[in-house]
# Entry
Amino acid sequence: MEEFQPISSTTKVFSKPTDWAWKPDSYETCLRELVHASTVLSNSKHVVLYRGHRDRSWSIDSTIARSLKQNWLRTPLGHQLNQRAKNTFELHRLLVSAVLWKFGHAIGPKPELLALEQQDQEFDSWFELMKRLQQYPEKEKDWEGLPGTPLVDWSLSPDIGLFFANRHRVPSQSGVVFIVDATEMGRIQMTKKVAEILRILEEQLHDRSPGLPLLFCPPKQTLMVRANRQSARYLMHMDLRFDLSEIWRIHEQNIGKRILLKLILPTGTDTAIANYLHEKGLDENYVMVNEVDPIFPNVTAAEEL
# Structure
């Protein structure tokens, strides 16, 4: 997308090669800018994805990348790895090897998911496993300091992005809604299944970095009410050394267009935004609904899948 201006003259704009962000001055302006940005991008007929963080300093990492950086490499949340370390291919091999060990050796789809895929090849058993772990992270086993998946969940809804940017936020925190033009990323929509991508990662482990994240949306998926209410879409984090914003900023310079816009939520707006979302029916009970898994109706813990 080309850079465009916010609708309010009071919104501060930060524009440089490594960043593009809007900082509204109030709750009302924040909502106006979110609607403005989503309208402009929707009118361009591009695929737009939204994600929210309650703390703007947090990186856009997959849960397994975050776990590795915090638990293995001792990098606190909100801090970056040393640039010299990130630029080493050895670090890439270490991080991807951990993902391949977990998904392929430590855990894999249970027979019920494999049988579903055998009956209908439009299902993806590995994606179904990762989606369940992604939607219910609080129920997953620790796996020796390696919880999470290489997926990063996004939404087609700007209000869901706002919900997660405001969820559990305290007045002193400045949250952020990430607005991504997925169309500018090129051909990232995957027709290959997750198992095939993991195999390719393993084959290229010693001589090539994988680059841009990949969008997974299999043609058939099991019904998950929570994922549906969140209008969820999933990007697979391919190069875990860098968070997604770093990868996209490099790609932006290559294509001469923007991919990522950050909308910063002003401090002290948490209650007003929560009330706005509540009036639209978007509260904790609705967005984070607990449900009975249609494939495993008697299973309550994701670690058993």
Notes: The radius of gyration is 19 Å. The first helix runs from residue 27 to 43. Residues 76 and 143 are 20 Å apart (CA to CA). The chain has a mean pLDDT of 91.
